[in-house]
Amino acid sequence: MTLDNADKPTVEGFGREWSTFTQSDEQFSAEERQRIFDGYFSIFPWQTLPPHAAGADIGCGSGRWAKLVAPKVGTLHAVDASADVLAVARQNLGVLPNVRFHHASVAVLPFADGELDFAYSLGVLHHVPDTAGAIRDVAAKLKTSAPFLIYLYYAFDNRSALFRAVWMASNLVRIVLSRLPYALQIAATTLIAATVYWPLARAAGLLERLGLMPRSWPLAFYRRHSFYVMRTDAFDRFCTRLEQRFTRVQISEMLHAAGFVDIRFSDAEPYWVAIATKA
């Protein structure tokens, strides 16, 4: 396999991440998995898929979302650029007979043009060098009228200047941590999860119950999530070498340029999740 449009250190980093945070049923409760899944897929048009639809999870990771998609479709292709990641996905999804595993980058997807009935890529394509090119590569494999669900890190275009300034400071931490030895990354991000994510998230939950939570409260997204999810996401946030962020307008433009129409964004966190249709 070639790693076209894949950053090797980033791919290797995800191999380590998902080998540690495997998202198995013992670690990741069914209720929490379903709640997060619903946040991503609330805008997905399940009713438009043909019977026995065949689709792809582009950058499947541990298989945490494929576990809930596969029972709804005919065939689900789990694709990832990391062999280590695919090993974790196989362990998590091995009991599902309709899942096929592919070690491939987004630039060399193992499908014929126009083969797929749907695709989704959640939290992946902002970690490749050419995100616009990756979206075009996915589009090429979709049938006409096929839906594509995508989640890309947002550029805080719906946030205040203060919020963006805080993020810029935290990004300096990411640049440092993403280059440390793995053991130090685990220790540092576990500490961040315990001393930053957890208190801010639990405070957000309390403020919400009191009807006092400001819209801009940091890390409010995690107010209903477990510490395991916080640890996972803290590692994911601070230990990834290559990260890009996009505004809602930029994402829409990339989708249009790749041949998608009927683009619609979710108005709920995480930002930005969009659904589009192959023209």
Kindly describe this structure:
This protein has 279 residues and is of the alpha/beta class. It has 2 domains: 8-155 and 245-278, Vaccinia Virus protein VP39 (Rossmann fold), CATH 3.40.50; 161-238. It contains 9 helices and 7 strands, in the order H-H-E-H-E-H-E-E-H-E-H-H-H-H-E-E. The protein has helices spanning 8-20, 30-41, 66-69, 83-93, 131-141, 161-177, 182-209, 227-238, 248-257, and strands at residues 54-58, 75-80, 99-103, 118-122, 147-151, 260-265, 273-278. It has a 7-stranded mixed beta sheet with strand order 3-2-1-4-5-7-6, sandwiched between helices. Helix 5 (131-141) links the parallel strand 4 (118-122) and strand 5. The protein is globular.
Please bin the fraction of helical residues.
40-55%
Low-confidence sequence ranges: none
CATH architecture classification name of the largest domain:
3-Layer(aba) Sandwich
As a percent range, the share of strand residues is 5-15%
